[in-house]
Amino acid sequence: MTLSPSLFKELKDIAGPGNITAEPEDLACYAYDSITRGASPDAVIYPGDTSQVSRIMALSTREKIPVTPRGSGSGMTGGSLPVSGGIVMVMTRFRKILEIDTDNLVARVEPGVITGDFHKAVEEKGLFYPPDPSSSAFSTLGGNVAECAGGPRAVKYGVTRDYILGLTAVLPGGTVIRTGVRTAKGVVGYDLTRLITGSEGTLAVITEMTVRLLPRPETVKTMSVMFPSMDLAAETVSRIMRSGIVPRTVEYLDKGAIACAQNYTALDISDDVQAVLIIETDGRPEDAEFCMEGLVRICRDNGAMEIRTAETKEEKERLWAARKAVSPSLYMFGPDKINEDIVVPRSRIPDMVRRIEELKKETGLTMVSFGHAGDGNIHVNVMLDKTDKIQREKAEYAVDAIFDHTLSLGGTLSGEHGVGTTKMPYLSKELGPAEIDLMKRIKKAFDPENLLNPGKIFKP
Q: Angle 18-21-27 (CA atoms, 0-180°, nearest 5)?
C-alpha cells in the first residue's frame, strides 16, 4: 500500500515535523534486521510518548494500516520486518530512565533505552540488572522485552521475563493498558505482563516497563578453560551443573567460534584447542573464590588442557569482547548464515554437540556453535552461499535435522531469538494444533484486524 498525502499529513501532525519519513533511502534502512531482509515499509514514524503511540494505533485501525514496532533492529528472526508494508514505528525516542528506586529495587524505564546504558546506570547506584544479551551495547530494553532476551547470565539469574514487573502498552485501536505491579508479589487477574513479554510485538506496543533489580554482586571472578575436544567441554558443562555450584555464566565456543574470537582480538590460543569455556562466579569475595576453586577442580579432572584466570578488569573485558564479537565475525566463513538458538536440557548438551559434528561431516558445510552452555542454549550457525542451490538445500536439511534432534532430546527451537518469520515454518514441529489455535485466538483478542506486526510467528 501507499499512504495518501492526507494520511501522511495526519501522521506528521501526531508525531511532529521531522519524526516521519517516506523517503526511499530512509525506508530501505528499515527493511532488514541483523541478518534477515524483508519488504520496505510505506512510512517510518518516530513517536515520542504514549499518547502519540495511541493516536497512531487508532489511525492505523481506522485506515487498516499494518504497524510494525521496532527498537534497534538487532533481532535475528525477522521479527521487526514490515512484511506487510504499512508503518514501521521506531521507539528510539523513548529513551528515558524514569526512576531508579534504590529502596524497593525497582526501576521505571522507557523501551528505547539501550540495555548496556541501563546496566551502567543501575550499577552506579549499587544495583544490578542481570539480563545481558550479546547485543546489549546497541539493543533496546523494549526489544529485549518483546523477544524475552536472555544472555550469558541467564544460567544463574534467569531471562528478561523474570525482571519485568509491569508494563504500559498500547493495543491496536489505541487503548492504553497498564499491567502488573511494582511489588514483590501480585496475583490479581491473568498475568498480562508475562503474556506480552516475549510476544514479539504482535499483541501490544510497549511504552514503559517497571523492572525488578538486584543488589550488585561484590565480586565477579572470570576464567577461560581450554579443551582438546568439544565433547570433553560439553561433558564438563554437565558435570559443573550437577556439582551443586551455581556459576554466574558458563559460555562455550567451538573451534570455528574460537577462530572468530581470535580474528577479533588476537587471543593467544594454541591450534590444538578445540573448545573453550568462559566461566564466571560472583557474590561476596570469599564465596566467589570458593566456587571458582571448585569449578577449576572439575575442569582439571575432566581433561582441561589449560585454565586461565582473568586477573584484571581489562582482561575480563577483552575476553567478553571476543565472545560478543563471534556472531558478527562469522562471515569469515561465508557470505550468508542461518543462525539458530536451540535449547536442550543441560545434561543432553554432549548429545547435541555430537549431532552437530555429524551434520558437519554429512553436509560438508561449515557449522559454528557457541552459546550459553550453562542453560543449554546453543547458537548453531550454518554458513553458506545462498546463491548456491546445492548449499542452500544442504543447509535446509541440516536445520531440519538439528531441530528434530533438539526436540527428541526434550529441547525447544528457540531460547532467545523468537519465531519471527524465519522459524515460522517449523512452529508445528514443537507446538500442537490445539496450542497454536489457542495462541491465534489470543492474538485475535488483542488484534482483531491483524494489523500489529502481522506475518510473524503464525503462517498466514
A: 140
